[in-house]
């Protein structure tokens, strides 16, 4: 029984990170209709920013959170403003292809700058944990989860309350009507893409605390962001959070599966992804627009 | 979306003629007796066949699949299983792969093709990853350590090249004739407006499943030839991310929804990748990425569009500005 509780906790802790990874991806996709394949590369850049600040200047990863955010926000903003703006009205596939090229570019620059070695950020509290009954909780992961919750909460508040947030939501509902009401769509697009990149950077910082770093680390998180964002419902902050938590928990339980059919031994740790994705398929068939998704207009 | 300059449903006829000519030229590649050159061009043909497969579902029917690598992998494993039972006939490999892929597409297609747009894309990505994971855990298929396959000796090795050429040609001509048939028009109608297509009496689900099954048969055949030519298969080779993304990128870059596009895209991309790899050992992928970014910005409609360009530089500048926000 204690295993179940431990899995649940592990799943929630992992899910918090996934929620932040998926949040930026989901905003860009839901609002700008761009599947940003460079999102994983942005996550990686965030993680390496933290790594570099930590090893060169001993900056605590939680202190570097805003730094990663600002750096990647500026990067994303400039990319959208200077390059992607040229293909803003092109079909979905064109921007998709653009971000694919961008991702290759960024990952390979990182490979040259930081080489292909696996790296890690080891803080004083990295190994520390506490036990609650039978359940072990690492402090670093708990802080990460709290930070993730705070970030998603802030995002939601900002999108609902602030003037820019309202302009963003208006743009996602009806570009034409938003433009008529005085929203500068080019500017909003640049802000949203910057925001997506910034959130990816934040996610990268959080990831660097519990995972090892490699220039191609983003790929795995990109695929998970894809799934989480569809699971929860596109372009919704709560959706990303719920999707992330559900995915994390399903994945954590999947690792515990262990049985044998005939001579074929099946262990959950190898099938982790397959099980999580089969759950995704079932959710999609039952609720084609995600858990928090709304019906089509 | 207007497809100015792309010609009719099969795309620009001039571009198609050029592509057919190039295909004939490619028959001469084994005459160089250079193993490296032959492998490079065999891979180009393999990617072309997969790109044609993707073009049918993604380009013509408008359903962007991120899971076509599942068919490629299934095709490769069909050959693997047949080879383990002592069969070495390449036609048998391809036939089994086509049947298995078509059946798989129909079974998976029923639930998955109910989803629209992006949701379909993600579901297919899930299917591909799940199939790869399941195969990696099946001891019968060698699990994650894979299957070794018996290969033809050096004197007959070009057989694999010709087989791959046939698969690519079959996919190309198949696309051409399907596009001109009732099927092709049904696919395009679904792409442009699925509801309107349904009103016109096109059973959307049935046609989408047909498109996906044919698409899977093309990718599966490529996999069936790839397996023995490579001599060894395991989940990480047969379900590689490259085999999933490259055909998509090639099709879009060449011009999706045309008959010439996928081939031009695969020739250019696979060729450029190979050249860059030779000259820039470390930074080749970087240049590859930069090249894609530039082509997308300068030719947002794909390379085939250049063939239909009338009006020179001015028309080209106009075409780039159309998509600006």
Please describe what this structure looks like:
The complex is a heterodimer of chains A (297) and B (325). Chain A has a single domain (2-286), classed as Orthogonal Bundle (ABC transporter involved in vitamin B12 uptake, BtuC). In chain A, 72% of the residues lie in helices and 5% in strands. Chain A is built from 11 helices and 4 strands, in the order H-H-H-H-E-E-H-H-H-H-H-H-E-E-H. In chain A, strand 1 and strand 2 (135-138) form a beta hairpin. In chain A, helix 1 runs parallel beside helix 5 and helix 2 (39-57) packs across helix 9. The N and C termini of chain A lie far apart (45 Å). Chain B has 325 residues and is an all-alpha fold. Chain B has one domain (13-321): ABC transporter involved in vitamin B12 uptake, BtuC (Orthogonal Bundle), CATH 1.10.3470. Helix content of chain B is 70%, strand content 1%. In chain B, strands 1-2 form a two-stranded antiparallel sheet. In chain B, helix 2 (35-60) packs across helix 11. Chain B is globular, with a radius of gyration of 19 Å. Chain B starts with 12 loop residues before the first helix and ends with a helix. Classes of the chains: A mainly alpha (297), B mainly alpha (325). Chains A and B meet through helix 4, helix 8, helix 9, strand 4 and helix 11 of A and helix 5, helix 11 and helix 13 of B.
